[in-house]
Design brief:
- The chain is α+β, with helices and mostly antiparallel strands.
- It folds into 3 domains: 68 residues, no CATH class; 31 residues; 129 residues, OB fold (Dihydrolipoamide Acetyltransferase, E2P), CATH 2.40.50.
- The protein contains 7 helices and 13 strands.
- The strands form 4 sheets. Strands 5, 6, 7, 8, 10, 11 and 12 form a 7-stranded mixed beta sheet that branches. A two-stranded antiparallel ribbon has the order 1-2. Strands 3-4 form a two-stranded antiparallel ribbon.
- The N and C termini lie far apart (158 Å).
Length: 301
């Protein structure tokens, strides 16, 4: 019986060379009769190997014994293996050109605008873009502010911070704080946020802004001061009423100069009655759709 090599394994078939050794342009197709496993065993028997080389050959031997012709090694491993065991004296091999990868066209280059070479032109473009962006943002903020600050109802523009029932015109009395309005004249106030004033109806006070005579101017300033005194610390209520104008004109300049109409109460008493009783105003009663001539007895000839 022939003596087996100490590294050979019982029952393992003799390993032939893999079909292709290496990759790339230098790939070699070896013939099956070249027994690579036997050459590894012969190199191990010679004994002129370093510890690393011996460990490497043992590892290669185990791989070939386990996987046979399906063993896959890298180019570096094939090169190191042949460096240790040497190439066959007359290898029957032929070279095959490497398989070329499919051609992939280069991606098209994106067009980029040519930068201006003139420094002044480049700076001008920069400031133009910056101005356009800033102006656009400012315009957008203005539009958003107008949308949220104005409420358009029935063609009339009203403001959010006006007293709710003063906007509705239901005729109910609404509590009113002194900080919610300013006094324009003896018979006119302006609610905060309102574009136009509110005409207090039922009486007419002298003009203090554009009086027709000196007497009216003096009485107008006294009426305004007295109204300011009446509302200073009293419990105030506002009752909005329709203005005496033709249908469809209320809220426009054709009706009371665009002003709304109402009654102002201080501690439950209408301020117009107080001014009339003190000689600082005269009664002024209008109809449902029109008013008589405005009484102005202060500048009578």
């Amino acid at each position: 019986m022939s003596k087996r090599h100490p590294l050979s394994r019982t029952g393992l078939p003799t390993l032939r060379l893999p079909t292709i050794i290496g990759r790339g342009p230098g790939a070699i197709r070896m013939e099956p009769e070249d027994d690579l496993q036997s050459r590894i065993e012969a190199a191990l028997v010679r004994g002129r190997l370093s510890q690393w080389q011996r460990q490497f050959l043992n590892d290669m031997h185990d791989r070939f014994a386990k996987y046979g012709a399906r063993t896959r090694l890298s180019d570096k491993q094939w090169a190191k293996l042949y460096e240790i065991i040497g190439r066959p004296a007359a290898p029957s091999a032929h070279y095959e050109p490497s398989r070329s990868l499919p051609h992939r066209p280069a991606p098209p280059q994106q067009w980029r605008p040519r930068r201006p070479r003139n420094l002044l032109e480049r700076e001008a473009r920069y400031f133009a873009r910056r101005f356009t962006r800033t102006f656009g943002m400012a315009l957008a903020l203005i539009v958003v502010g107008l949308v949220f600050s104005l409420i358009d109802k029935g063609g009339q523009v009203t403001w959010p911070n006006m007293p709710s029932l003063a906007r509705s015109g239901t005729g109910d009395r609404v509590p009113l704080a002194r900080s919610q309005f300013t006094i324009t004249d003896g018979d006119t106030i302006r609610l905060d946020g309102s574009a136009k004033g509110t005409r207090l109806v039922g009486f007419n006070a002298p003009e203090s802004i554009e009086p027709r005579c000196a007497v009216e101017g003096n009485l107008g300033r006294r009426a305004k001061a007295r109204l300011t005194e009446l509302v200073a610390s009293a419990k105030l209520e506002l009752q909005m009423v329709p203005c005496s104008c033709p249908p469809g004109t209320e809220g426009t300049d054709r009706c009371n100069y665009g002003r709304s109409c109402g009654h102002l109460f201080a501690n439950g008493q209408e301020v117009g009655d107080v001014l009339i009783s003190e000689g600082l105003a005269v009664p002024f009663i209008c109809g449902s759709t029109s008013c008589p001539a405005t009484p102005r007895p202060w500048c009578a000839p």
